[in-house]
Design goal:
Blueprint lengths: L9 E6 L2 E6 L2 E7 L1 H5 L10 E6 L2 E7 L5 E2 L4 E2 L3 E7 L7 H13 L3 E7 L7 H7 L6 E3 L8 H8 L3 E5 L6 H8 L3 H11 L11 E5 L2 E5 L16 H4 L27 H7 L5 H14 L13
Length: 300
């Protein structure tokens, strides 16, 4: 997994046309050159940039090549996406989790399943659903101190974000990881000239040798805009399908009802998760009849 470059300036936050860039010398307030607007490109948090002097101040002169970019929340170069799900209250939706993990994989970010509320209900059902997926799975138990150190180690050297539907315990998890989170984000906001809790833009801060994107107001990725995956690419967004791709009888197999499908044979043999395959099938059916001109805009 590619790790971030420590000394490369990057955008911490963008507010009202101003961008705040972390450099080796400190935080710099600047604007972006007009050429980005002409090209229809918007700088976002996480962008690695080059700065230049212009008109008595510094401007963003170049956005370095992006590993990926998400529209909602607007963030670039994400390495890890922690998908927070609870064992109960609310019960987890494997379809939502699978959509989010597929978006992450499609964009080159590593999804990590984080299971909360293990003290209220056992995590075995959720763990079993992902046992064959190849995706990292972390169970958090605050009383036993389980899971937090594992998450901290994953964050090191990477840009990460947490997402999860309301009630799953994302805020509790972040507070357990970073008891000073509110103080840190408040302190950064004051440096940026913004009052605490007065904005909902993505803001990045450093922790555990890596970076965490604070995404207030975003419970989860907007799968309708950021998450369009063409039907031809969807099979690659489920890593556990990998060993069987290219083994089907027919080229271009959709893995739905075709004879001689290696993916469906693996499913029947118990080598793939039924719930994961069901999510693939549902997602495939959602996009199978879409034309390119119907693809949701996802440019940033």
């Amino acid at each position: 997994m590619q790790q971030m470059q420590a000394d490369t300036p990057y955008i911490v936050k963008g507010v009202g046309g101003f961008y705040y860039v972390k450099t080796p010398e400190g935080l710099v307030e600047c604007k972006a050159r007009g050429l980005f607007r002409k090209k229809g490109i918007t700088p976002v948090a996480g962008d690695r940039v080059r700065l230049a002097q212009e008109g008595g101040g510094r401007v963003i002169a170049e956005i370095l090549p992006r590993k990926n970019v998400f529209v909602r929340p607007p963030i670039a170069n994400l390495d890890l996406l922690f998908l927070v799900a609870s064992t109960t209250q609310p019960a987890p939706s494997t379809l939502i989790l699978d959509k989010l993990s597929a978006i992450a994989v499609d964009k080159g970010a590593q999804p990590v399943l984080v299971c909360t509320k293990a003290d209220l209900a056992g995590p075995n059902g959720l763990r079993e659903a992902y046992a064959l997926s190849g995706l990292p799975f972390v169970t958090v138990d605050y009383a036993a101190g389980q899971g937090l150190e594992e998450i901290k180690e994953m964050i090191g050297g990477r840009l990460c974000a947490f997402c999860g539907n309301s009630g799953v315990g994302k805020s509790t998890l972040l507070n357990a990881l970073l008891p000073g989170l509110c103080r840190e984000t408040s302190g950064i906001s004051q440096k940026l000239g913004r009052g605490r809790h007065t904005t909902r833009e993505v803001e990045i801060f450093e922790a555990f040798g890596g970076r965490i994107a604070d995404t207030p107001g975003f419970a989860s990725l907007d799968t309708g805009r950021a998450g369009y995956i063409p039907k031809e690419n969807l099979q690659y967004a489920f890593p556990e399908f990998g060993p069987y791709l290219g083994q089907c009888r027919f080229a271009g197999c959709a893995h739905r009802a075709e004879a001689g499908c290696a993916v469906r044979a693996a499913l029947k043999a118990g080598q793939l998760s039924p719930s994961r395959y069901a999510s693939y099938a549902a997602m495939y059916d959602e996009v199978k009849d879409l034309h390119d001109w119907q693809r949701p805009a996802a440019k940033a």
